[in-house]
């Protein structure tokens, strides 16, 4: 039965790699394993229990409000152009120091991805501004696209990313943290991730220097980028609004404690940011009703694209448990801490590179393996964070990721040429972040 379960898992990831609907594939695979587990193995995890695991995620009070409000807030920031003002405010200083243009673009995109946690969404929102700005500075278009693409894993420390609330919930159930607060997880991920993005940016700058694709490497071009030619007037207030919720969350975290944590939860902070965005919209004659529609659409997309995927992964994990595969994997990892440490990074990373999205692999890993972190001599946060960060980094060197396709289109470049430039920085970053997560926490 374990071999049959392993075969089902491999077939599942093959179908996801082939771009079949991930939610459907995970749910059907989970049900199949649950049926085998109940009626052939005689497992305690029945089909009904597997379905209940799916339903439980749809009404998860710690998960659903966080994701839908973050996604709704991001949609409002895009509609009101507040995100454009923030990007332009960040880009302008780069024009004065050519050496930091490429690594600076990586870090700017990474920071913006915390506010707008969709990789494809931030690629579109930031790429349409940054890539023309870099090209206007005579950076080669393919390197401009690579710089932005390399920053599309900043969402790993976003409160709206599906994994952080998920890991917080698992850690809370394990008694590792006092409450299911995603910010507790993010605070432990922040330093390793920040080290990782700096390392990735520096390595890409070295690649850029070696290939001679940096500032001044192409013939003169028209300055089409508003952030470079000065036509775009940055409104400081609009530029600050996207970071207000993150600022509130940081100062309300237990580590800082300047505001009451229970009052300033993720949904509350995101709604405050949304309200400020609506006020700005009204000042610029954008109807509040339209802002509301954008918020609701963003929230609905968050439920559709994120929450249901998490629920499907929970059903898949329940099926793995029913057929006995989870127990076998846990026992195998118990024999060696290094095996568990390597698997947490390698599995989601490879899946992300192949399929363009490591979400399914990381979600399944966190549902099935991460709760047993103590058996491997690690914490839930360490093991779960490594899995999801590795998935985010792996996506940043995948030629089939939505973000690279968008950016390559903006730059007029080949996606394969873009990922050739992000591959080395990503590989080094995943090693650095993994070591940092295991040693600094």
What can you see in these coordinates?
The chain is mainly alpha-helical and 441 residues long. It has one domain. 72% of the residues lie in helices and 0% in strands. Keywords: Cell membrane, Membrane, Transmembrane, Transmembrane helix, Transport. This is C4-dicarboxylate transporter DcuC.
Could you provide a short overview of the structure?
The protein is an all-alpha fold and 441 residues long. It contains 21 helices and no strands.
Task: Pick out its properties.
441 residues; C4_dicarb_anaerob_car-like
Q: Please state the average pLDDT score.
A: 85
- Proportion of helical residues: over 70%
Low-confidence stretches: 222-229
What does the main sheet amount to? Answer: none
Radius of gyration: 22 Å
> Which structural category do the helix and sheet elements fall into?
mainly alpha
Shape: globular
Task: Compute the number of strand runs.
Answer: 0
Strand content is under 5%
Distance between the termini: 37 Å
Our count of domains comes out at: 1
SSE ordering: HHHHHHHHHHHHHHHHHHHHH
Number of discrete helical segments: 21
Transmembrane segments: 24-42, 62-82, 94-112, 118-137, 144-163, 190-211, 232-252, 264-283, 303-320, 340-365, 397-416, 423-440
Protein name: C4-dicarboxylate transporter DcuC
Keywords: Cell membrane, Membrane, Transmembrane, Transmembrane helix, Transport
Family: Belongs to the DcuC/DcuD transporter (TC 2.A.61) family.
Describe the SSE topology.
Elements: H1 2-17, H2 22-41, H3 47-58, H4 64-79, H5 82-91, H6 101-115, H7 119-136, H8 141-149, H9 163-173, H10 182-211, H11 226-229, H12 236-240, H13 244-251, H14 266-283, H15 288-323, H16 325-334, H17 337-355, H18 359-368, H19 380-395, H20 402-411, H21 415-440
Helix pairs in contact: 1-2, 2-3, 2-15, 3-15, 4-14, 4-15, 5-6, 5-7, 6-7, 6-8, 6-10, 7-8, 7-20, 8-20, 8-21, 9-10, 9-18, 9-19, 10-19, 10-21, 13-14, 14-15, 15-18, 17-18, 17-19, 18-19, 19-21
